[in-house]
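Sample A.
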Amino acid sequence: MEALENEIEQLRIMMIAVAEQKGNLCDPEVVHISQQLDSWIFVVQQSMPH
């Protein structure tokens, strides 16, 4: 689980950096990273007890 949390944190940092660099939240690279981030967050949420 810690590895997933680290991956999420790294993607979050990368997404923010790319968004700042591009100056546009709709840039395809930012959107792609955001989608990856969403996928990992979903995995973590599914593994949590309900």
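Sample B, a different protein:
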Amino acid sequence: MLRGARLARGLGLLARPFSAAAEPAQAATAEEGVQAAITGLRQRLAAGPDLGDFICGSDLAGYSVPAPAPKEKVRKPEWLKREIPGGSAYAGIKSKLRELKLATVCEEAKCPNLGECWQGGEGHAATATIMLMGDTCTRGCRFCAVKTSRAPPPLDPLEPENTAKAVAAWGIDYVVLTSVDRDDLPDFGAAHIAATIQHLKEQTGGRLLVEALVPDFQGNRECVELVAQSGLDVFAHNVETVPRLQSSVRDRRANWEQSLGVLRAAKEAGARVTKTSIMLGCGERPDEVVEALRILRESDVDVVTLGQYQRPTRRHMAVAEYVTPEAFKAYQQVAEELGFLYAASGPMVRSSYRAGELYLKNMIRRQQEQEAAAAAAAGGTAA
């Protein structure tokens, strides 16, 4: 386990005042008032808990804003606000998706970044995360807004080809595929996902980089290998939360060890990059998050994202706390110190959010160039 100065540099940030409001905030009437309140609170918290307090979980004052009770009407922290989606790129993607009868996790899971990702801008291509195998899942995780059923509709055999056509028409160079869980299928949908990836590569002449966020396939290694060896560039599977909270957050058929095994098997099967995600605000302790990151890195996971859990409806699991942006920055530093190739950490970050898109794209391209150069050198030596 990472010790000493390196760990302290990352976790030391967790001892600083992170909260923009330690009590239910009153709406500010002017920007000056908001900034003054934040400055004053941070000064009062300057003598707060030290590194040891946070690691032990004995004093978390300033680490987060308590979430309101289920029936309590309190506004969310300012850092969790997002604009209503709109714009020409957003409308164009939505129209194309409807035309080809494709679903997106952006809509089904009520992602707060939908408008930002679909509209694009600031050098980012407009993109959507396609959800394969329909819009109905066989599992019922307490945090997820996707519809559930023991017997979802049958798979659309044209979906892999239609998905490839839609993505190719957008002209983007990086796409994220995700899917519902299909425990009702003999191979849990692995062949369907693999076929979609292969169609995407064919439709774009191999130019398109494909990230696939896949189910656990109930731990079936053959299914994992089928997808890992389908031509994808990033194999992603989410552990969702720390080990202690697995049974209270996820469906009973999912668990930490099974998900960890999927990520290990994917890397052993040849996946170039493996990726996972953790939600914060579910009741986890800081030391549990750090330990989870350590285990993931020791399991050769390359990329990790951390984001704030937000309750999609009143029927879903309540939010335990709103972790502040500063705390997320501290976790990102911890992840980087642990040796992840890339870590995206922030309140609005999601597993398929564009935060790591450009980095992953450049990293994979760089690896491809290195492999090509090595192959050419080997060929020259042989000659």
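Observation for Sample B: The mean pLDDT is 77.
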